[in-house]
TrEMBL record:
<dbReference type="Pfam" id="PF02469">
    <property type="entry name" value="Fasciclin"/>
</dbReference>
<dbReference type="InterPro" id="IPR050904">
    <property type="entry name" value="Adhesion/Biosynth-related"/>
</dbReference>
<feature type="domain" description="FAS1">
    <location>
        <begin position="56"/>
        <end position="200"/>
    </location>
</feature>
<dbReference type="InterPro" id="IPR000782">
    <property type="entry name" value="FAS1_domain"/>
</dbReference>
<dbReference type="InterPro" id="IPR036378">
    <property type="entry name" value="FAS1_dom_sf"/>
</dbReference>
<feature type="signal peptide">
    <location>
        <begin position="1"/>
        <end position="23"/>
    </location>
</feature>
<keyword id="KW-0732">Signal</keyword>
<protein>
    <submittedName>
        <fullName>Fasciclin domain-containing protein</fullName>
    </submittedName>
</protein>
């Protein structure tokens, strides 16, 4: 081997090793792939109530970090649904804000939090969960297919109706009350959260 060939080989090996070191040192972004195939990173995922929502965290972990979902998280814990909503899913969760819970009469809210009403509370919360991962685009597609409305089957077995209202998703419960999706497509490691402005009431 000539001196020139030997020098070229050494330089080439050095560059290859440098490239490997840089690849090893490069930080890994926290990501999640949505149903559309788009990659959601920590920086592109929406914040909720000013709090960062990481797509690598579960629904319960991110909801617990949200300053506007304290009532929801307390209810999930009281109903014994933490393990379920921390599971692999995927789940679509319509998450009522604290202001949404405040619309429910205090006597009813307090009653739900009693141990004797655990099953009732679990039923209300499961009514906000749809098995599978439905993005806003998915829901809008179902509404279009249904010529203006879509029926979503919730985890408690009852139907939830989705329509469009002034460009937003409007949900109508089995008992007739309504909630608007005020923020959608908050990616989770085990599904997606859509923030809603009211508690949806199933048929009791």
């Amino acid at each position: 081997m000539t001196k020139h060939m030997l020098l070229a080989a050494v330089v080439g090996a050095g560059l290859a090793l440098a490239g490997c070191d840089k690849a090893a040192e490069a930080p890994k972004a926290e990501t999640d792939t949505a149903a559309t195939g788009d990659v959601v990173t920590a920086s592109s995922n929406p914040t909720v109530g000013g709090a960062e929502m990481l797509p690598t965290r579960t629904i319960v972990e991110n909801a617990s970090a949200s300053p506007i979902h304290k009532q929801l998280v307390a209810a999930v814990r009281q109903a014994g649904l933490v393990e379920t909503l921390s599971g692999p899913g995927p789940f679509t969760v319509f998450a009522p804000t604290d202001d949404g819970f405040a619309q429910i009469p205090a006597v009813t809210r307090d009653g739900w939090m009693r141990p004797a009403q655990k099953d009732v509370l679990a039923g209300v919360l499961k009514y906000h969960v749809v098995p599978g991962k439905l993005t806003i685009a998915d829901i809008e597609a179902k509404i279009a297919e249904g010529k203006g409305s879509a029926t979503l089957k919730t985890a408690d077995g009852q139907d939830l109706t989705a329509t469009k209202s002034d460009g937003a998703i409007l949900l109508t419960s089995a008992s007739g009350n309504k909630a608007l999706v005020t923020q959608g497509d908050v990616a989770q490691s085990n599904g997606v959260i859509h923030v809603v402005d009211a508690v949806l009431l199933p048929k009791m």
